[in-house]
Amino acid sequence: MHDAIVHPSGARVRWVELPGSAPARVYVHGLGATSAPYYAEVAAHPLLTRHRSLLIDLLGFGISDRPQDFSYTLEAHADVLATALRKAGVEGASVIAHSMGGAVATVLAAHHADLVAHLILVDANLDPYPPAPVRAGSSGIAAYEEEEFVAGGWKEVRDRVDPHWWSTMRLADPRGLHRTAVSLAEGTSPTMRDLLIDLTIPRAYLYPEGGEPAGAEGLRAAGVQVLGIPESGHNIMLDNPEAFARTLAALLP
């Protein structure tokens, strides 16, 4: 395990690292997740093992620390991730990021251009959305007030989500989980989609085959490769790791 102090409180971001050559590949998890369980099988695939790989957890999630005086906005996550990557000696990386992590990675690429040379988003959030009336999933978490969620709303979410997601969500700090969900629902300014479109680095958006994501043609017009992965749902890397790994190998240098 590796770590870097990223916050005035002394809080640390931690990651699991697989050795290899530069440039590095950085894997970023989604809301309520953690990178090693989601990406280990793919990062260890024979087609992908030549490069150094960092399976990193954002503050508030997984094996990273949970400072209470941190905003947990997408922008703050991106800045902290940048700090950790610089302390790890990473530059010009290929960043592979899932769901909420894709939103963070898009902000990272826009605000810290030296760190990201290739960006691959995996069924990532690109647009703001209203809190959901059914209190499950990221939009459902954002429907709670923070104190309501911390006091017991998280138990209602636990009872509504699938056991696989809860297995990692239960590791998350409740305030960090809620604040991140609220920031994800509110989005960034400019939006994550606009930030992605304006980037000039190689970019790809992977989605579960069977229905193209909203705005796919606009992404393609901006030079983003939009690719469907067969036999998969939202957690593409878990549902079809072989196809996911082969797609990454074809996209990455």
Automatic annotation (TrEMBL):
Keyword Zinc-finger part of the UniProt annotation: no
Domain AB hydrolase-1: 26-202
UniProt name for this protein: Alpha/beta fold hydrolase
SUPFAM superfamilies: alpha/beta-Hydrolases
Keywords: Hydrolase
Keyword presence, Hydrolase: yes
Superkingdom of origin: Bacteria
UniProt GO molecular function: hydrolase activity
